[in-house]
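Sample pair:
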Amino acid sequence: MNQSTSTSAPVCDTTSAPATRTTTTSSSYISDEPQVSDAQAMASLGELYATGETPPNYKTDFLSTITIPPALTTLETSGFLTPLPMSSPVAQCNANYIIQMLRPFPQLMVQKATFPPFIHPSYYKRCTENHSPVLQPPLANCMSIAQMFVPRTEETKPFVWKTIRMEQRRLLSEMETFSREELLAAIQVYIIYLIMRIADDALRHSEHDLHMLLSFQLLCEQFRKICAQPFALDEQANPNHTWEDWIFSESRRRVASLWFIISRVICVKTGIPCDTTEVYRALPLPSGHSLWTANCHEAWETEYRASQVNYRRPRLAYFGELIEAQRNPGDGLNAQKLDLWHTDADQLGIMLMLATAMV
């Protein structure tokens, strides 16, 4: 099932970023004055917005590899973060299911012990039980914001969104001071804020939504810069030997998977043209439920060893393999791979099944 390529385009690279501060990161999301205003951030990207033309030093960025279908579009200033029209009733049904599964993510940030399936549950557990500052400030701030967002009313919405924009500006202004863990946390919560916009009628604030999308890209590019490697790495080719390192790598794979899912059902185009790419097919699939939810190092080691055994069985390892298996599920080998995938798929895995069926 193919979605019309006229309704989505990749988010592309930008030439300049908002000014950054050199102060240390604060865990408080309310500040006196934002360091980077919407107008300043938009002006720093103004050449791209005004012309819709690719700058001379343009390069295809990470987001363009997983935001599909690739297409050349003209700049538009409305409809950001709104549902995309689907090409068939079945695709529309899949898209509706995905959006329904995305909408509760802000609520999951309130429940603390049940983070959304791309934020590892051990972050909060280790923070509270060991009294160690494991929970990164962006996550802590997002939890506080979610507590305001979930019970919001028409009267409180303006204050909630003012607070969210202040926190987003802080993340941008401080991103060059962040460690890789802090930056990954910033990317994760930015997705939560984007989902909040999806749940909160994005039609009314398209300029802010464009800013959110381009700011999200800046965070992703900064992350790739400090990691000096692709955003998501295959575990089999790049094995991790500690639970902490694996959590970091798997979180990256899950962020990439979730953005792919969102781009299938939500308008995340910026109007800046990108080259057609099939790179998303080479992205590694996320792990299964058992490995992701292991609640201690010993349990993780047990599940990790079991997963290594599965690597020797016919299995789905990359997006492209999942796409092709779903196109021909009657094939014996594909059926085996899909059976193994379904055995341990979590909520993210289910959404990924729905999204890849629409490619």
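The radius of gyration is 20 Å.
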